Amino acid sequence: MNAIKDARCGHDDGQSSVNRQRIVDLGLPFPAALCTADGMAALSQALKQGSCCHLPFCSTVEGEALGADIFLGDDHAGPRARGNPGWQWQEPLVFPCVDFSSGRIGEVLAACRLLKEWGEFVALEVSGPITILNCLMELGTLFRTWRKHPEWVEDALQQLMRFQLRYMQEAVAAGVDLLCYADPLGTYSILGPKHGKRLMAEYVAPLLQRVEALGGAGIHLCPKTSLLLTEYGFAQWERVTVGPVDDYAQGCLRAAGKGRLFGEACLKNTGYRLRNGEIQTLRLQEETTI
Amino acid sequence: MKNKEAFLAELSRCVLEMEDDVIAPIARRYAEEGHDPLDGILFGLVDGMNQAAVLYEQEEYFIPELLICSTALYNGLNILRPLLPQSDFGGKGKIVIGVVEGDTHDIGKNLVCIMLETAGYEMIDLGRDVPVERFVSSAKENNAEIIALSTLMSTSMGNMKKVIDRLEAQGVREQYKVIVGGGPISPAFARKIGADGYSASALEAVKLADRLLSQTPVSPHKHLSSLG
User: Fold this and answer.
1) A201 secondary structure, DSSP code
2) Which of A14, B8, B196, B200 has the fewest CB atoms nearer than 10 Å to its CB?
3) What digits encode the pLDDT tens for the residues B96-131?
4) Does A14 sit within 8 Å of B157, measured CB to CB?
């Protein structure tokens, strides 16, 4: 078996932490800076490094919209799940109907619109299914259910995909320039080849095909996801010339039109530089089968 | 009526092959037929988990498989452990373990905890999102030898150093070995913050703990004989 070497996380210096103290030190109100459009837009602009303003500041927005209990943080750390609704396969799964104009998810989209009004490029971070589902159930339960009752997980993934597509549609309508997909718990080093390939086939590749069809924003993938897609044949790399750019994010923005799916490096790795004025884009294979 | 060896092989197989929903009745029958519960744990359940750990090292099993194996292990332990005399398990040392504050992802920590427990350590599992001071106070209360810190998130890494700083501030740093691990953690980071060790995997954590406490890895047979 060819073992894959997982891509290394590109932002390992803890600089992206948004605990209460950091927000207050920036002269911004807590917790408003994490849950109101005005606050989030101001915080995103204050934290901006490079070409894009990033939103949100955690991977809990989607989970919260689906029912997770989220603690917005304190002096020690930023937002995280305080508990989960404890989804189980024994109960029929019906996702709540999410109103994308209200709640923290609505404020995130409104913050995107504000940043666009302020003349900023906006990168919206969206979480992958394993990370979202971890806000809603224990991971051990998820993996066990995926093995013993796969139809329940397949149904959950289908419902989750519909939710994510709606979210990304709203984001594109809000003017987001880059949709940044990352699934910290859905990586090769955690899932392994069997579940990694399954996740690509059953969720990521089909999702990306539908997101590409939306048009509008570019799509950036965490390199851990782009690795799985390419290693298992769901996508292949192509080089595109973008010329001299200030940073990798600018390269992604400039390439939009020649290619829209990126993922050669971590977008938060502000030290990463393109070589020879070229950026790699991903071309999805037409058929996604296991 | 099954003989003891057949039962032990079945318990081991159930753990290794993730048969978490059938292991409890097997463990119950094993005990009802009068077989030694400690043998059932060490040569049945732990044997299966050790084989699963080898497959993990060989990258045949990953986190999803290990989590289900551990569910099977604990389903069997829930039957057999209550039948043990108090002192018969966990005598190699005490380890306080938890996910540092700011992080609620505990799959890695749970696996490390299972492997260390099956290796004979007594685990004080503080769970996830654990405040700095709680690691220190728990280590003191339980006379632990090792404090094991885990995080999956780069934004929480700084809290690992805070635990070490708190130990130093209280003048007790030398009393505990501090080991760290998790997705964004590296050997360089561990050295930078003054940790005593870094482990890249659950199995390595066992070897690290053994090394730090200057114990050679103990086979189940030796573990038995050490109980006298």
Assistant:
1) I
2) B200
3) 999 999 887 887 898 899 889 888 899 999 999 999
4) yes
